[in-house]
Design goal:
173 residues; mainly alpha; two-stranded antiparallel ribbon; two-stranded antiparallel sheet; 4 helices; flat; phosphoprotein; chromatin regulator; KAT8 regulatory NSL complex subunit 2
Length: 173
């Protein structure tokens, strides 16, 4: 669009004002002079810092192993992100607050690390205590024997309950 609006000849005052605004908007985000120099230096420093950090993090993550020792042998598992221990030995880190050891039960003690959740005593799936059952099925009532042995001749059949003759209904005042 700038090639069409090359010169002020033939443009009305409003069009010249719009052209001026358009040129200002094209340069709005561009920096000039000292500001441009400082911005470029800042970008270069950020690139060096992030490239160096990303490269260093990549090399240390690939070789970062758990620091725990089991029977005088170092654990060969890879450590969790941002920690120095694997999932099996994370509770040896005294500064971490995300995992606790499962307490287990009296019969079967358990020391597996479990993520801390909203419960006060986190448990592994093996020792998870289920809440009490909310639904209790109704108990079938036992019918006394006296009612079962009642004589059946006291009851009327369906045929006996039907009217035998139809009587006209008369209404009187």
């Amino acid at each position: 669009g700038s090639s069409l609006l090359t010169g002020p000849e033939g443009l009305m005052a409003k069009e010249r004002e719009n052209l001026k605004r358009l040129k200002c908007l094209r340069r709005y985000r561009q920096r000039y002079g000292v500001e441009a120099l400082l911005h470029r230096q800042l970008k270069e420093r950020r690139m060096l810092a992030t490239d160096g950090a990303a490269q260093q993090a990549h090399t240390t993550r690939s070789s970062q192993r758990c620091l725990a020792f089991v029977d005088d042998v170092r654990c060969s598992n890879q450590s969790l992100p941002m920690t120095r221990h694997c999932l099996a030995h994370i509770c040896q880190d005294t500064n971490q607050t995300l995992f606790k050891l499962c307490q287990g039960s009296e019969e079967v003690p358990c020391n597996k690390p479990v993520p801390v959740s909203l419960s006060e005593e986190p448990c592994c799936p093996l020792h998870l205590r289920l809440p009490p059952q909310m639904y209790v099925p109704e108990q079938v009532l036992a019918v006394p024997e006296e009612l079962e042995a009642a004589p059946t001749d006291l009851y009327l059949s369906a045929a006996e309950l039907q009217p035998t003759e139809s009587l006209p209904l008369e209404f009187s005042d």
